[in-house]
C-alpha cells in the first residue's frame, strides 16, 4: 500500500500483488442489486457539494448525487388513502397523517403502552399499530433534507422535529433503544427512560431485516455466513453489495475529500452512500455493530459516506460502526476512516 506523503491517505492501485483491493473481485458477478430492487432506499440526494458546502457539478465528483444508488422514490412519494393516513409508496408503510398524535414525549415503555392503548381503542379504525423499527423510521426520512428531514411535500401535520422512538433495541447498553431526530435525520441509541416523540406505523415492507432475530421473526432470509470472500473483496450475501476487504487509511484518519479522491484512484470502486453503509449494520451486535465474519477489523469507529448532510452540506453523513449509529462529520476534519463499495 502506498501513502500520499502529504495526506497519509493510501494511494489505491489495481496491482494484483499489492495490499488493498484486487482488480477483479466480482468473478463474473454483477455487483449489487438492480436499483429498482435495491434492498435500501435512495438517500434523496441529487446535488453535490465541496468540503465547504458549496454546490458543484456532480459529474466526476464520486458523490452520492452522481450515482444516486438505492431504490428510487416513486412519484408521488406519498398518497393520502384517507384524511387521517399517509401511505409511503416507497415502502408500503402507512403512517398517521397527524405526526403529533401522541401529543407529549414519552419514555420507551410509555410509548409502547400508548400504542397498545390506541390499538385497544381502534385508533383511526385499526388495531395493528406499532412502533416502527429503526430502518422503517429512517426510510421515511430524506437525509438530503432538513428542518424537517423528510422528502419534500411530505403531507404530515403536527410534526415535532425532535427525537422519535423506534422499537429496535440497541446492543450498546441494556435498556437502550434506537431514536431518530426528524429535524436533521440523525439516528442514535438512547436509554428507555428518556422521553421522546412517538409516530406509530402499520404494515410491512421490503426493507432489510435488522438482525438474525428480526429475520427469523419476520421469516426473511439472513444468510449464514453473511460475508463471502472474493479475492480481496467481500460479498455481503444479504444485500448483494461487494465491499473492500479492509479499512482505509491503514493508519490515522482522512478528510472527506481525501476519501473521495482515494476512491477515484481505484477503478470500479467508489465511496458508499450512507444507506449503503447502514445496510451492513446488525443491530443485535455492538463494538462493532456487524455480523461475524465481516472484513473490517475489530477497532471500528466512524466511516465517511459520500452523502452530504441536508442540514449543512459542509458536513457529510457518517456511520459509527461501534454503535451502528448514523451521524455527521465536518468534511475538512481528519476524523474518520472509509471503506469502498464496488460500482
Shape: globular
State the separation between the terminal residues, measured CA to CA.
Answer: 21 Å
Along the chain, the helix and strand elements come as EEEEHEEEHHEEEHEEEHEHEEEE
Count the DSSP helices.
Answer: 6
Task: Give the strand content.
Answer: 15-25%
The portion of residues assigned to helices is: 10-25%
pLDDT < 50 runs, ≥5 residues: 1-31
Note the main sheet.
Answer: 3 strands, antiparallel
> How many beta-strand runs?
18
Sheet with most strands: strand arrangement = 5-6-7
Which structural class best describes the helix and strand composition? alpha+beta
Rg (CA only): 20 Å
Query: Can you give the mean pLDDT?
Result: 90
Would you kindly provide a written description of the structure presented here, covering whatever features stand out?
The chain is built from six helices and 18 strands. With 343 residues, the chain is α+β, with helices and mostly antiparallel strands. Strands 5-6-7 form a three-stranded antiparallel beta sheet, with no helix packed on it. The chain has a three-stranded antiparallel beta sheet with strand order 8-9-10. The two termini are 21 Å apart. The relative contact order is 0.19.
